[in-house]
Amino acid sequence: MIISIDWIKDFVNIPDMSPDELAVKFTLATCEVEEVLMTGELLNNVTVAEITEVNPHPDSEHLHLVKFETGKGIREVVCGAPNVAPGKKVPFAPIGTTFPGGFTLTPKKIRGVMSEGMLCSETELSIGSDDSGLAELPEDAVIGETMLDHLGRRRDILLDIDNKSLTHRPDLWGHYGMAREFAAVFGQDLKKPYGEAWEKELTSKFTEENSPVTIEVDADSACLGFSGIAVDGVTVQDSPRWMKDRLEACGLRAINNIVDISNYVMLELGHPLHMFDRDTIKGGKIIVRRAGDRDKTFTTLDEVERELNPADTLVCDTEGPSSIAGIMGGLDSGVKETTSRIFIEVANWVDSEVRMTSSRLGLRTDASQRYEKCLDTRQVKQTLLRTLDLVLQLCPEAKVVGGIVSDGNKEEKAPLVLEMTPEHICRVLGKELETGKIVLILESLDFSVEMKGELLSITVPSYRATKDIECDADIIEEVGRIIGYDNIVPVSPLNTISAVRLSNAKKMARNIQDFLVLRARAHEVLTYPMVGAKLLEKSSWHQMNEELILANAMSPESDRMRPSLVPSLLQAAALNQKTNSSFRLFEIGRSYLPDEKKFSTERNQVGLVWFSKKESPFMDLLNNLEDMFAFLNLKVKMSRPDYRAVNPYVDPEWKGLHPNETLNFQVMGKVSGFITSVHPVVCRDFKIKGNLVIAVLDLADFEEKQIKDKTGYKPLSRFPSSIFDCTVVADEKEPVASIVSVLNKLKLKELDSVRVVDIYKMDNGTKAVTIRTTFTDREKTLSGEFISSAEQSVMETLEKGGFPLKQ
């Protein structure tokens, strides 16, 4: 959000300090200023010049040598504009002028002639849209005057505010609210132009006649209050320069005076509104109701036909909808060039309903952004009167018809009053403050403070009690940020700290994190536990979790609890493969499945993704997992998947399962996870160009195994192991798990491990698989005779299993 300091100065005097100092102080006290922008600098450097002579360029048919008077002598530049002529007054930018985009003028030879400066068009100065030639200024333009003064514009400081730091402060979504904050931060008085006298003057313009528009608000709608006033005799024309400048500085395009007034008031007071062409209100009646079954679609101002939900609240006339409440008006309800009668509408809506409708429609507007922050209904009247004030100023012939009409106003809540002692505030902040100082800070923020014995009785302003100030801590925060957290001396906590014992599940997760980061060199990622139907469909994941859809989803991309870590990890892999030729990622998180008895079942899992653009990392991940199981002292059996059996972690029909590179992990006789090379079909859907391997393990089963496993401690062997590698030939489609399972049947207690270390695909439809067996005796050194016998047993077992040695 852009804040204009020139606009802020309408309401408060800003101390003399640099823009950067201003931004830093405001950031520390209120909200983050992302950038400081200066406007008017370009126009302040560009001056009015009068062309005195135009000569052809000696080396070009299209360029001219133009001499002109700047008020400081005659200058000459090379210019290619078609409308150069003696006597014309045009803008001149000298050397050193910086244009939008960062381009700075420097002396330059153009076709052999030195040019020191530039004559400018409207678009180059951002003062118009004509780029066909030089901007032609009126004859009475003063030579040497800056374009800033010539156009009657002012220099301004703009603060680009991070919206995320304002989500809890709806009062700061307008310049008046910001001015109140500036007054408190810099210790200045706030000007209050919209008081009782101002209100009385405006209401005196109301007439005795009935309003030509009536309002009817259905009780079950999302409306918290709807007010309006009719005005006749308006003239739709261009807005004055000062209004255009402020709107454009804040990022809004000027349209016409009536529409611009609505945007101006929204930016000033923070409350949106709508200007109706009164001739389009059929039956002279506005009805606020739910869409129900009557309205299926609605075309908004941006000419997009939008699908409605029966629960959406609409603003209608007697013939149909004219706007989607709190979001955007209809195509035919807006002000046109021929409009002469308007109806100014200011309302308030239930924040959550505006947010849900806006998210579902994918339509975020300036209005919806503000309504979904929970605005104060008491601001409606002030907003309506300020709008009327500007309409009467810019359209002197306009007249009010009747007065304010309202309906649907909910019963106002009693003011929120919080009580606490000054000592409590000081103790929590860790800084001694005088009671008078605390009262002064709170009153500068528009809180009412009354002393009741030793207690401060603090009445919260209505616009801060919507969903912002709720308890003592919020009041203490207000005091702390105004005095400055940088002015509070840090003190070490005095509380007694005792060690926290980790649960078995936490210990398991910590050990897995340590192993994967320190030994497997993997990076941990954190993905959202909510996903959308599009991601699940893109992943070809069959379990859609329709039963676990959120009632108040922030967006369609995160509207349900995820059934597995796999879709989220595929999305993370697709993002990382754009900038990395290989990577290793893992996540420890929960997946959710519907449960008839308990509503949902949560599973704590670890998901792993290994990626390489050159070769398959399947064996790398498998070996890393075997090492991790050993590190955790877990006996985990690997087996080929039985596609007839139910796998609780992956549907056997999932398109991502590779037919030859898939293994299940078994703990205590039940499947507790799987590993697979992701099938190219799924990789293609995610635009993943390379080899991807994914694994998912159930931590609950591993924890249960550790608890139930009564195996005593086994010390590391003091005697050397013997490693034997042999390479066998197998069919290209034969899973390597079949080879490993053959060797696991060897009845040798000294056989410590069996693992695949290499796979080489040959041209004749076969592959060479290198198997590594490790033999260890914990009581003595292995003899040469035993090693020879064991190696012979390995080779014979492989031969009998149908896997001959490679010759």
From TrEMBL:
Q: Any note on cofactor binding?
A: Binds 2 magnesium ions per tetramer.
* Catalyzed reactions: tRNA(Phe) + L-phenylalanine + ATP = L-phenylalanyl-tRNA(Phe) + AMP + diphosphate + H(+)
Q: Which GO terms describe its molecular function?
A: ATP binding; magnesium ion binding; phenylalanine-tRNA ligase activity; tRNA binding
Q: What is its EC number?
A: 6.1.1.20
List GO terms (cellular component aspect): phenylalanine-tRNA ligase complex
Where is each B5 domain found?
413-490
Tell me its cofactors: Mg(2+)
Q: State whether keyword Magnesium applies.
A: yes
Q: Which GO terms describe its biological process?
A: phenylalanyl-tRNA aminoacylation
Cell compartments where the protein resides: Cytoplasm
Start and end residues of each TRNA-binding domain: 40-148
> What is this protein called in UniProt?
Phenylalanine--tRNA ligase beta subunit
